[in-house]
Amino acid sequence: MKYKSIRLYKLMFLLLLTITVNYSCEKTDDEDLIGNWIRLSDFDGLARGDAIGFSIGNKGYLGTGYDGEERLNDFWEYDVTKNSWTQKADFPGIARNGAVGFGTGTKGYIGTGFDGKNKLNDFWEYDPSGNTWTRKSDFPGTARYAAVGMSINNLGYIGTGFDGNYTKDFWEYNPDTDIWAQKTSIGGSKRKDAACFVINGKGYITTGIDNGTYQTDLWEYDPSGDIWTKKRPISNVSDEDYDNDYSSIIGIFKTGFTIGNKGYVATGGQSTGVDVWEYNPSTDLWIERTNFEGSSRADAGAFTIGNLGYLTTGKTGSYYFDDLWSFEPSATYEEDDK
Q1: Are 273 and 288 in contact (CB under 8 A)?
Q2: 83 C-beta neighbours (distance < 10 Å), count
Q3: Burial code of 110-123, b = ≥16 C-beta within 10 A, e = fewer?
Q4: Element (H, E) at 29
Q5: Burial 239-261, CB ≥16 within 10 A → b, else e
Q6: Alpha carbon 317 to chain centroid distance?
Q7: Contact 147, 100 (CB under 8 A)
Q8: In Å, what is the CA distance from 186 to each residue of 141, 229, 333, 338?
Q9: Residues of 314-332 as b/e, b for ≥16 C-beta within 10 angstroms?
Q10: DSSP label at 279?
Q11: For each of the chain's 338 residues, which pLDDT tens digit applies?
């Protein structure tokens, strides 16, 4: 009788263990399957890294960069409805990589960067209605590359980067007056090769490197008060579970973009990577999404159109990419739609 009871307990334990393991596996799989990448028409230009990407209305744009041998000044437009690329008027500034680019409601802007010898501070406006470029007032900060650029409420912002030293100054550009104004510097450390995105009228800067140290802070900028607010760090510093995997957010050459009211950083890292993280400003928390399904890379370009993010180009070592992918963060992962 005692033997049968022990045997029954063993069977019950094994059954409970099986249910628990299966539930855990199913839960993990479900979490891993949030967000879907779809491969689209390859970028028509040369494969490259360190290009700039932005959107104007319902069109995406990509230009400049480095292909492993030469710096580039070509400029391309992506049409979502046709899933096709069209070459536009070349960027008239000197060919470069490490520039910043951003789009407002009707215009696009490119500035700063590196031409192989010189750090740059020129600044240019692109008008898609006439396919024309116009040189605007030079960026008044020091000439630099590896800065961040973004548009908030149709005003432009450039900050951080490398001018021979690491920087953290921050500047606002008014397209209506063609005037720059220096704003409050980003909090925390100086940095280059950071990532940024804009959510609901506020800018966010995170990641990057300063004198060999990867940065683990996240800063929110409110232009209405010219105020920087430090948010939760992107590292495992708490005793809670929410930040256990945050270390994979840390790094450089990451690509930032916005979809809806969430921010995203993808690829890049402490070398190259495929990680994708989503930031929710209402909770100040990050959630890992489905990994980028293309090859691991750094220095990719990105833009947002509607409810989709688009990621293209980039590099791994001496290999440069020209594939284009769209990302829908709320979709279920589908393995066979590459």
Answers
A1: no
A2: 11
A3: bbbbbbeeebbbbb
A4: helix 2-32
A5: eeeebeebebbbbbbbbbbbbee
A6: 19
A7: yes
A8: 14, 9, 37, 39
A9: bbbeeebbbbbbbbbbebe
A10: E
A11: 444 444 444 444 444 444 344 433 333 444 566 999 999 999 999 999 999 999 999 999 999 999 999 999 999 999 999 999 999 999 999 999 999 999 999 999 999 999 999 999 999 999 999 999 999 999 999 999 999 999 999 999 999 999 999 999 999 999 999 999 999 999 999 999 999 999 999 999 999 999 999 999 999 999 999 999 999 999 999 999 999 999 999 999 999 999 999 999 999 999 899 999 999 999 999 999 999 999 999 999 999 999 999 999 999 999 999 999 999 999 998 876 66
pTM of the predicted protein model = 0.90
Closest CA to 183 of 138, 228, 122, 124: 228
Q: Exposure pattern of 265-276 as b/e (b: 16+ CB <10 Å)?
A: bbbbbeebbbbb
Which tokens is 234 given?
């992107």
Whole-number Å distance between alpha carbons of 333 and 305: 20
Give the type of residue at 266.
A
Q: Can you list the domains of the chain with their CATH numbers? A: 33-332 (2.120.10.80)
Comparing C-alpha atoms, which of 91, 140, 143, 139 is closest to residue 117? 143
Say which residue the tokens 């979809």 belong to. Answer: 259
| Burial class of residue 138, CB neighbours in 10 A (0-12, 13-18, 19+) | middle
Dist. CA 266–CA 273, nearest whole Å: 8
- Identify any residues that bridge with 148 across adjacent strands, giving them in sequence order: 159
Q: Which residues contact 324 (CB under 8 A, 6 or more apart)?
A: 39, 40, 41, 42, 43, 78, 310, 311, 312
